[in-house]
TrEMBL record:
Pfam families: Abhydrolase_6. The lineage of its organism: Bacteria, Pseudomonadati, Pseudomonadota, Betaproteobacteria, Burkholderiales. GO terms for molecular function: hydrolase activity. It comes from Duganella zoogloeoides. Residues 40-278 form the AB hydrolase-1 domain. InterPro entries: AB_hydrolase_1, AB_hydrolase_fold, AB_hydrolase_sf. Keywords: Hydrolase, Signal. Residues 1-22 form the signal peptide. This is Alpha/beta hydrolase.
Length: 287
C-alpha cells in the first residue's frame, strides 16, 4: 500500500474510532483515489475482506474503496453482542463520520444481507447496491411460507449443531461445504484458512442471525438501485435456472426496480469463480 493510501486508511480508522463506542465490529482497509466515488465491500460468513482483492483491482483505482472484514472472522477479535446489528449501526456511523456520499455497497452472502439491512434502515446513506448471492430470507428459500417463529427455531437448531461439532468434524464440514461453493482448489483452501481462523461462536451466532431474520417486506424501504447476482448451478439437481430466477425474484418482489441476474457456471463465490461475468454486470449497472 502506498504512503497516501496508508494515511487514508489510518485517517478512516481514527474517524471511525471516534464515533464507535462499542468494540469495533469490523476492520476497514481503504484504497483508491480520494476523489473517486466511494465503494464499500462486505465479505460473507467467516471470510476475509481479501476475498474482494480482484474486485478492488478492478474498481479501486479511480474510486475510493473501503473493504471490511467483520469481527470474529478470519483472525479478527470477536465482539460481544449480535454481530450483524452492531456492524450495521457502526457502518452507518462510519459512512456519516467519513462523509461518504451515496457509496456503492457491494456485499456477498452474509455481507449482502448486511448491506440490505443497512439500505433498508438508512436508505439515505446508500447510493447503489450490488448483492452477490444473498437473499432477504435465507430460511425461506425452500419454504416460502415459513413463519417468523419457525425461522427462529430453525436458526437456533443450526447454531446448536454448529457449536456441537468437535474440531475435526467442524473442519471437515467446512471443507465439504466450501467445495460446493467454490470451484478452484486454491480458492477453497484460502477460504478454508479464513474459516479456521474465525471464532466458532461468532460464526454460529452470525449464521443464526442470518437465518432468523426475514427482510422480504423491509426491502421495500430501500431507495438505492439494486443489482442482485445469484448462483444456482450447485443446486441444479433441485431445479433449473428459470426456477431459481423466479425464487430470487420472489424474495425481492417488494424492492422496486431490482435487477436479478443468475450466473450460469459460478458457484456461491461468484467473485472468485467467474469474476469477468460479475464485472460485466457491475460495469453495466454503474454506468
Amino acid at each position: 500500500m502506498s504512503f497516501a493510501r496508508t494515511v487514508a486508511a489510518i485517517t478512516a480508522s481514527l474517524l471511525f474510532a471516534s464515533t464507535a463506542i462499542a468494540a469495533p465490529a469490523f476492520k476497514i482497509d481503504v484504497t483508491g483515489n480520494a476523489t473517486g466515488a466511494p465503494m464499500i465491500l462486505i465479505p460473507g460468513l467467516a471470510s476475509s475482506g481479501a476475498v474482494w482483492d480482484g474486485t478492488v483491482q478492478r474498481y479501486c483505482g479511480a474510486r475510493r474503496c473501503h473493504v471490511l472484514t467483520l469481527a470474529g472472522f478470519a483472525g479478527l477479535p470477536a465482539i460481544d453482542g449480535p454481530l450483524l446489528a452492531t456492524a450495521e449501526q457502526q457502518l452507518s456511523e462510519y459512512i456519516a463520520a467519513n462523509k461518504l456520499a451515496q457509496p456503492v455497497i457491494v456485499g456477498h452472502s452474509l455481507g449482502g444481507f448486511l448491506a440490505l439491512k443497512l439500505a433498508a434502515d438508512h436508505p439515505e446513506q446508500v447510493g447503489r447496491l450490488v448483492i452477490v448471492d444473498s437473499l432477504p430470507a435465507m430460511a425461506a428459500i425452500q419454504m416460502p411460507s415459513i413463519t417468523g417463529p419457525q425461522m427462529k427455531e430453525m436458526a437456533a437448531a443450526v447454531r446448536t449443531r454448529m457449536l456441537s461439532r468437535d474440531t475435526a468434524a467442524q473442519q471437515a464440514g467446512q471443507l465439504q461445504t466450501l467445495r460446493t461453493m467454490i470451484t478452484g482448489a486454491d480458492d477453497v483452501q484460502r477460504a478454508l484458512a479464513w474459516g479456521q481462523q474465525s471464532d466458532r461462536t461468532t460464526v454460529a451466532n452470525a449464521m443464526a442471525e442470518l437465518m432468523g431474520e426475514d427482510l422480504r417486506q423491509e426491502v421495500s424501504r430501500i431507495r438505492a438501485p439494486t443489482l442482485v447476482l445469484g448462483s444456482w448451478i450447485a443446486y441444479k439437481n433441485f431445479g433449473n435456472k428459470e426456477q431459481f430466477q423466479q425464487a430470487y425474484q420472489g424474495q425481492y418482489s417488494k424492492l422496486a426496480g431490482v435487477k436479478v441476474e443468475m450466473a450460469d457456471t459460478a458457484l456461491h463465490f461468484i467473485m472468485l469463480d467467474d469474476p469477468s461475468w460479475m464485472y460485466d454486470r457491475i460495469d453495466q449497472f454503474l454506468k
